[in-house]
Amino acid sequence: MAEKQILIIAGEPSGDLNASYLVNAIKEIKPEIKICGIGGELMRQAGVETYADIKDFAVLGLFDVLKKLPKFIALKNFILKKIREEKFDALILVDFSGFNLRLAKAINKRLPTIYYVSPQVWASRRGRMGTIQKYISKMIVLFKFEKDFYKQYGMEVDFVGHPLLDIVKPTQTKEEFLKKYGISLEKKCILLMPGSRKSEILNILPVMKQVAFLLKRQLPEVEFLIAKPKNLELALYKEILKDAGLDFKIIEGLPYDCLNASDFCLVASGTATLETAIMQKPFVIIYKMGTLNYLLYRPQVKLPFIGMVNIVAGKRIIPEFIQTRARPKLIADYVVHTLNNPARLTQITQNLAQIKILLGEPGASKRAAKIILDFIK
After folding, report:
1. Are 275 and 259 in contact (CB under 8 A)?
2. Which CATH architecture has domain 174-358?
3. Spatial separation of the C-alpha atoms in residues 329 and 220, rounded to whole Å
4. Cβ distance 246 to 213 under 8 Å?
5. Which of 173-177, 189-193, 297-301 has the lowest mean pLDDT?
6. What are phi and psi of 46, to 5 degrees?
7. What is the pLDDT of residues 121-172, one digit of tens each?
8. Domain map of the chain by residue range?
9. pLDDT over 50 at 268, yes or no
10. What is the pTM of this model?
11. Which CATH number fits the domain 5-162+361-376, given the four candidates 3.40.50.150, 3.40.50.2000, 3.40.190.10, 3.30.428.10?
C-alpha cells in the first residue's frame, strides 16, 4: 500500500506555529506519512516539504492584498497543478482564510479538505459560511465558542482546544533570563510585542516607543524588552527606535522567556494576546493600521472588541487601544495607574486564569492529529 500523503497550507507566522505542532503530532502517530505544502521555518523543522515560504505572502489589509494579488493567483494555480499531479489523500488548510477558502472553492471537494483553525467568520464576513459549508469536508476548531457558532448553521465540528497551552512555556527561569541580559531583579520590566508582520511593526512600534518614553518619565527604574520574531529583520526595529533615547533590549525568538520576565506588556492584537493571557501577565492591546485599510476593515467586524482574549472571555477584560485610541499618553496613564494598583493587578491575573481554563485542555495538536488520521483512513 502506498504511503499516505497530505498537503498542508499555512500563510502566517501563527499558522506556521500551529501547523508545525499539528505535523509533529501526525508524524508521532504515523511517522511514514509524507507532508508537503506552504509554510515557514517551523513547518520545515517539523518535516514538511515546503513549496513556498509564508514570508512572501504576509499581508495586512486590502491594499496589501491587492499589491500581492498576482503572487496569490500564481500560488493558487501552482497548488492546483500539484493536486492534479500528485496523489494526495487530504488537504489541511490552516487559518489564512482569504486565500484558503478561495483555494477550497477551486478544488471543489475533489480532495478531502480539512480546515484547522477556523476563519474568523464569527467576527466578520459571515457570507463565507456558504463556502465553508459547501467546500470544507471537516472543520476542527480551537475555541469552544466556535463549536457553538457552527452549530447554529447546522454544522458538526470538532473542538480540540488551543495548542498554545502546550506551546507557551519559557525555556529558563526569570532569574536566569534577567541575569543573561544584565537586568536587575529589582527593576520592573515592560515588554513590547508589536506584532509579527513588517507592516504591524511599522504602524505599532512607533506608538509603543512613545508610550515607553512617557513611562520612563514616571517610572525611572523601568526596563524595556522587545520580543522580536525570527522572521523580521533587526534593522527594521533599530530604524524606528534610533531616536527614542531609551535602552530597548531586543530579544529574538524567545517570546515566552520575555513574557515570563515581564511585569507588564504592550501587545499587538493577535495570537500574542492569548500567549500573554496564558502566562497571566497584565497587559494592554494596541493596534493600528493604515487609515484606508482600517476604514474598510472595521465596518465588517460585528463584535464590540477585536482582542482574542476579550472575544474568548465574552467581555472586555483587557483594554483595547485601537487606531484613533492608540494614543501614547492615554496608554501610559493606564499602565502607570494599573502598576500602582495591587488590587487591580490581582483582578487581571484572576481574569486571565479563567481565559486559560476556557482554552480547553493541553494536547490539542494530538487530538487534532487523531481526528485527521481517522478521517483520511
Report:
1. yes
2. 3-Layer(aba) Sandwich (3.40)
3. 16
4. yes
5. 297-301
6. -80, -5
7. 877 777 789 999 999 999 999 999 999 999 999 888 999 999 999 999 999 9
8. 5-162+361-376, 174-358
9. yes
10. 0.88
11. 3.40.50.2000
